[in-house]
Amino acid sequence: MAGQSTDDAEIERQNDAIRARYGIAADWPPPAWLKGLVEPEPWWRRPAAVRLAQAAAVIFVASVSAAGGWWGAQTQTHASAANPHVAAFRSGALLERGAFTRLDPVSAVRGTAAAVSAPFLSSLLGTLQLPEQGMLPGGFRVIGAQAVTQEVTPGRPDAPQGVRFVLTSQDGERAFLYVQGRWLTPQDGLTVERRDGVSLVAWEDGPLAFGLVTGGEDEKAQSLAAAIRRALYGLPPTPIPSTAAIAGPDFPTVR
Amino acid sequence: MKHAKIRQGIVDELPHLRRFAFALTDNPEAADDLLQSSLERALRRTGQWRQEGRLRSWLFRIVYTTHLNAREAEKRHRAVALDTVEGVVGVVPRQESVVHCLDVAHALSQLPVEQRDVVVLVALEDVSYEEAAEILDVPVGTVRSRLSRGRAALRETYPSKGPGQGAVLCRVK
Q1: Chain A touched by B95 (CB under 8 Å)
Q2: Cα B100 from Cα A87, distance rounded (Å)
Q3: Which of A16, A99, B100, B168 gives 20 to 30 Å between its CA and that of A254?
Q4: Cα gap B148→B153, rounded to integer Å
Q5: What pTM did the predictor assign?
Q6: pLDDT digits (tens, 9 = 90+) for A140-177
Q7: B119 in contact with A, Cβ within 8 Å
Q8: In 3-state terms, what secondary structure has residue B140?
């Protein structure tokens, strides 16, 4: 009997570890393509039963909002936040958590700025002067870029596409720079948030909004953000711009 | 009616399917790619689902089959992203908590894939042997033996001691 209970405990320990590692995926916000998947036809072409299914899908999204906490708080609490893009980038911040010191190699840096279909954003991205080696603190440099869809902007199906740049430092630390079109309200300065070991610095320049996600200290993240911001426009490094911290919901607990 | 039921089933099962896909791929982006391919496939094949069967098992099986196909294709064509600015980058962990968390993934990666797949399926979804057999498309006895061997191997590579007390350290591949 003692052996059996030991086995059970060992199995439970393994299960807990596996759930802790992979269970977080159940909390990821529903992506945009799912909405398209469950709402494929215009309402006037659907039979009643399918309309019912669509209603259920909407209820699902709403229930995820309520139960997920993070997702729900993101769309409700922060609808009037100082920088509306913070909410959009927060989804990216959640997905990046744990990736700053990830062991496995970067293998999914796919797509480029050229893959962005929005003409205005694509052309604007083409004007950005990415920081060259030696321009950023800690030896950070851009190693890849990937087009991302509007799924980082929950509740806004018309949100623009964006690009996720992957940076790595000379120590192998990673950071992720999100860039998307600014189509809400203008906001000067940097907005800084820190939750559960993740720092998010967001700002807007011209028609673009940026969100820098790092696992480092606030000051370090701000310094890097400021350097990136200026480097993107070919300006020499200067003191950090003014910052404004805003309150936000906690990230969900990893199960 | 059947189509609507499957759509609703996808909605209901999405969190479970997503974490299963994540466990199979160990990569958030690859997991969503896998899930999207799988669900599109499921919607194209609604006629193949027998209504007396378990929709959950059918959906999980499609995810798993799609994953196997992708894995085989990857073996044949070692994919290299054409637009990667620079090659792959390995990162050395510096926090023990991170090492401990990733240690499970590392330990799982040491298992034969068929053992790994059944271990993560059972651990994450708590499915019965019969349902696991249905999803993985293997006999129940095979599920039992793979699970048993996988658990035993995992006990060796992922010891119960905490991080820094003898746990297997992950290494950059």
Answers
A1: yes
A2: 30
A3: B168
A4: 9
A5: 0.45
A6: 887 776 666 544 444 444 444 567 777 888 777 888 88
A7: yes
A8: helix
